[in-house]
């Protein structure tokens, strides 16, 4: 984010041995320190320097804090993002909570646009998590989200703010809830619906993998429906033909960078969706594809593979199922599922990561192509027929 030009205040900062800024310049002057290390925060004409930069530049933290206080500046912070979120946006209802933050409605005070904001604390209540680790994770999440902005299935990042204690990511507001909510309410999905979701997730994964980014937490809770499905107004109008599930990926909190040929060793993600190689602590981009296979099986069958519904989900049972469980496509739920759909699930749930299908290959799989085509996913007859049933299940 480019730093704005700011006029020099009428009174010089006291007790400072180097200039914190240059008049008429968009950057701060700190000899021997690279620009990426200049953690300067802005809120209009207000500025402050981070404690780390202060120490490395030979200043005492106290000196800069006193100078900032003297000029009504914000205290030192860790990033280069603007202050002043609450002067720009009005906070609304809570949309969701997770281990890494809270998502709320955010209304732009300038034009009334209703968006969403993910509020991420800079510290943790857990004593075993170091502050540096939290700040690194925040930086990585923002970096990944910025890198894949050209992918339409990623949330659009409008603005970034910070305060002394939090980071604020202003994004699209999705109105249809999570994919997890949808599966819980409606049970199994049609092949057309499942293909739509798989297609959109594959596009996100392809963009990530092309840039050497492991998403690392593919699961229904991390994907948002852009609009309610089915659309009540369209159903009332008798229009079933142009409805589709459209999703956005919502959370990059577990994303990791992977160099070509590199394998990661620290286990991450949600256990039920972990690939076998994660338990061996030797994994790469291929693990995202396994997780998508679990999700796709879940959508088609209305249940997870390897474990009986309501059965043992202890850590040992989860690991044993993933490493040794039999992949079954039998019973009433699979009677009307096509061989092409089953083939893609099998290729995604290949325990040998070296032969597992990639995102690029999966997008060219016959099932995805037949269900979605070149113009995006279209509804199958079964989906159209069950629209009124889904509408009845929608909450009031």
UniProtKB/TrEMBL annotation:
Summarize where ATP binds, as residue positions: 118
PANTHER family, from UniProt? SERINE/THREONINE-PROTEIN KINASE
Annotated keywords: ATP-binding, Kinase, Nucleotide-binding, Serine/threonine-protein kinase, Transferase
Q: Which family does it belong to?
A: Belongs to the protein kinase superfamily.
Matches recorded under CDD domains = STKc_CAMK
Q: Tell me what organism the protein belongs to.
A: Symbiochloris irregularis
Output one GO MF annotation: ATP binding
Q: Where is the Protein kinase domain?
A: 89-368
Q: Which PROSITE patterns match?
A: PROTEIN_KINASE_ATP, PROTEIN_KINASE_DOM, PROTEIN_KINASE_ST
Q: Which InterPro entries match?
A: Kinase-like_dom_sf, Prot_kinase_dom, Protein_kinase_ATP_BS, Ser/Thr_kinase_AS
**What name is this protein filed under?**
Protein kinase domain-containing protein
Q: Name one Pfam family in it.
A: Pkinase
Q: Does the keyword Amino-acid biosynthesis apply?
A: no
Upper classification of the organism: Eukaryota, Viridiplantae, Chlorophyta, core chlorophytes, Trebouxiophyceae
């Amino acid at each position: 984010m480019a730093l704005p030009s700011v006029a020099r205040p009428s009174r010089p900062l006291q007790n400072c041995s180097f200039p914190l800024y240059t008049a008429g310049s968009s950057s701060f002057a700190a000899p021997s320190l690279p620009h990426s290390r200049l953690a300067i925060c802005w809120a209009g004409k207000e500025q402050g320097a981070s404690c780390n930069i202060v120490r490395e530049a030979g200043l005492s933290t106290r000196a800069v804090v006193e100078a900032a206080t003297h000029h009504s500046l914000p205290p030192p912070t860790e990033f280069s993002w603007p202050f002043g979120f609450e002067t720009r946006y009005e906070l609304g209802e809570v949309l969701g909570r997770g281990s890494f933050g809270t998502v709320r409605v955010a209304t732009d005070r300038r034009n009334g646009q209703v968006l969403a904001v993910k509020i991420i604390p800079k510290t943790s209540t857990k004593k075993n998590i170091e502050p540096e680790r939290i700040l690194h994770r925040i930086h990585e999440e923002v970096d990944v989200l910025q890198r894949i902005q050209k992918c339409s299935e990623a949330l659009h990042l409008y603005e970034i703010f910070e305060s002394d204690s939090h980071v604020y990511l202003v994004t699209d507001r999705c109105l249809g809830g999570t994919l997890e909510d949808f599966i819980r309410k409606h049970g199994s999905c049609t092949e057309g619906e499942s293909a739509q979701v798989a297609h959109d997730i594959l596009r996100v994964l392809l963009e990530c993998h092309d840039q050497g980014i492991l998403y690392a937490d593919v699961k229904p809770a991390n994907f948002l429906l852009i609009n309610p499905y089915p659309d009540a107004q369209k159903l009332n109008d008798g229009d079933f033909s142009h409805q589709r599930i459209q999703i956005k990926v919502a959370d990059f909190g577990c994303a990791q960078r992977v160099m070509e040929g590199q394998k990661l060793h620290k286990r991450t993600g949600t256990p039920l969706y972990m690939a076998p190689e994660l338990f061996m602590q030797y994994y790469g981009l291929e693990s995202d594809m396994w997780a998508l296979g679990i999700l796709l099986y879940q959508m088609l069958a209305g249940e997870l593979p390897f474990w009986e519904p309501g059965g043992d989900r202890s850590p040992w049972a989860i690991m044993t199922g993933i490493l040794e469980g039999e992949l079954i496509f039998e019973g009433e739920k699979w009677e009307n599922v096509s061989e092409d759909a089953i083939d893609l699930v099998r290729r995604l749930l290949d325990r040998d990561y070296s032969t597992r299908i990639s995102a690029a290959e999966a997008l060219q799989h016959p099932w995805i192509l037949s269900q979605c085509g070149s113009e995006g996913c279209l509804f199958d007859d079964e989906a159209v027929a069950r629209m009124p049933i889904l509408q009845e299940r929608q909450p009031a």
